Each structure stands twice: as structure tokens, then as C-alpha cells.
Amino acid sequence: MTTDTAVTPAGPGAPAPAPSGLRSMSRLAVVVLLIGTAVGLTFLGFFVGSGDYTVTDAWRALFGDGDPTTLEVIRNNRVPRTLLAVLVGVALGAAGAIMQGLTRNPLADPGILGVNSGAYFAMVVAAVAWDVSSTGGYMAASMVGAFLAATLVYFVGSRGISGASPEKLVLTGVAAGSIFSGIGFGLTMIDPKSFDAIRSWQVGTLDGRDWSQVSVVWIPIVVGALAAMILIPYLNGLALGDDRARALGVPVGRVRLGGFVVVTVLCGAATAALGPITFVGLMVPHVVRILFGPDNRWLLPVCVVVGPIVMVGSDLLARVLTSSELPVGMVTAFIGAPVLIALVRRQRGGEQ
């Protein structure tokens, strides 16, 4: 994309980026609109879903009034499910922006680090080897797998004279992800019990999620999102290339390692909560970049707002498209695939 290279990013000691995208006042107006949309969709998620419940029933249940069945569905199903979609949207939106900034690759996706595949592999191993079947056990295993996979990718990808270059990290992540996925799928094929236990997790779904998942993942996601904000000026510096960033005083190695850890925490928590959700980390930064330009001072914070819009909106579609609710991972893939094709075509057009 031409906008990714036309701007001089700001890092420590670097000049401020040239204006691109919307004007400042227009940007502020769009940010307010996006925040309002995110809040509105979140509240809508409390009222929309399967079951013959009116808006009045849902409203009363939110405040502790109504029959026990309605209270159970609204307060212990729809509310935590919607809040979990918000948290995962925050995680994937921020992780996507960081990943594209670290690799200087506008088509990079957080899954490129092998985090999702590592989480999946660890959960399968826990189910097969230790007969883990509880939600807490699955989430603990997937977080451990995410960290181990990310550590392995960074360790292998940072070997050699050039260190942890974007190209080496991408190639190492793809290779490691393929290995983890292949072994994980193989284990499920020889152990049907483990396949039955995790098949709903494999497709990425919010169905059946409750407060236990929210209580586990909200802390790492909030901490990871706050840590992502610290990286903003350094990501702008990295956009100039490693040599120029170093000349401007950017500690490239430490920034890349820090960004790598933040992405791992965010993606690991999101994957542990819902399973592998595709395309959100890819398309959210691109949509934001079209409106706000490549400056991470706008890009990264707005991705934290747009991510929940995409996730909650996809979940609402999953609830109403069919009588039996679709996994949200299917909806994001259905939306994201055409977006990816359009982005690739646009990038090729910009290179001509």
C-alpha cells in the first residue's frame, strides 16, 4: 500500500509523520462515532440472541428481576459472552497493529507467530496426556502453549548475523505453526476423546462461554493493551527500517522483543478464550489505516476500538443468521476472506 511508505514515522527523536487519511478534527469525530458504535453494539449484545425473550425481559433480567431462566440466559450467558467478544476484539485489534508494525508487512497476521497453533497443540497434549477436561485447564494449557511457541519462534528467528529480522520471524512463525498444527491434528485423530472435547474450541466460538472465561482473560488482555500503547512511538520508528530507527535512537532489539511479548500475551489470551479467530487481526488495522493513515499514534488506539466492533458485530450476526447459532470464527472468516483478497489486489495495484 502506498500509504505505508509515504509517511515519515515518528519515533524517539524522529520527525512527526506527515498528515494522511482524515484531517485531525474529522479523525476526532470518527473516533467518537466508533466509540459510540462499540458501546451501542455491546449493549445490543445483551438483548439479541436465541430464545424467545423480549427487550423488556432482557432489561429486567439485567437488573436482577424476572424468572430464574431468563436471569440465567441474560446475565450468565449473553452478558459474559458479549464482554468476552469485546475483550477478544481489543486483543486481536491491538495485536494485529503491533504485528504489522513489527514486521513492516501490511498483510501480517498475529497467527503468523504460531501462537494460535502453539496454543492448540498444548491444549491437545493436555487433553491426551493428562485427561484435562475443565475450562480452566484448557485455558491454562493454551496460554502455556502460546508462550512456548512464541519463545521458540523468537529464539530461532533471532539466530544469525541479522538477528530477529522481520523476514526471519515471519518464516520461522509459519514453519513452527505448521508443525504445531500438524502434530495437534494428528493427536486428535488417534484420540477421539480429545477431539470430542475440543472440537467446539477448534472453530472459534462464543457459544457456551460464561464468566469463568472472562475472569481469566480480562487481566492479561487489559495489561497487554496498555503495554501496547507504550510501543507506539517505537513502532513509528521501526517503519523507517532497522538502520534508520537505530540512528534515531530506537532500541530495535528490545522494542521487537517487547512487541513480541505483548502480541503473545494478547493472542494467547484471545485464543485461550475462544479458539483460533482468523482475519480480525489482519483486517482491523487495514480498515483503520485507510481512515487514519499509518501513524501508530492514531492507528493502534483506534484498532483497540474497532476490534470489539468487528467481534461483537460478528457475534450478533452469528446469533441471528440461522436458528442454530454459528461459531463466530466462521463469521469472521466469511467477512475477512473477501477483505484479504481486496487488500492483496489493492497492494498489487499500488505497486504497479
UniProtKB/TrEMBL annotation:
The chain crosses the membrane at residues 28-49, 82-99, 111-130, 136-157, 169-190, 216-236, 257-278, 325-344. It is a multi-pass membrane protein. InterPro entries: ABC_BtuC-like, ABC_transptr_permease_BtuC. CDD domains: TM_ABC_iron-siderophores_like. Residues 1-20 are annotated as: Disordered. Keywords: Cell membrane, Membrane, Transmembrane, Transmembrane helix, Transport. It is found in: Cell membrane. Pfam families: FecCD (PF01032). Belongs to the binding-protein-dependent transport system permease family. FecCD subfamily. PANTHER family: FE(3+) DICITRATE TRANSPORT SYSTEM PERMEASE PROTEIN FECC-RELATED, FERRIC ENTEROBACTIN TRANSPORT SYSTEM PERMEASE PROTEIN. This is Iron chelate uptake ABC transporter family permease subunit. It comes from Gordonia prachuapensis. The lineage of its organism: Bacteria, Bacillati, Actinomycetota, Actinomycetes, Mycobacteriales.
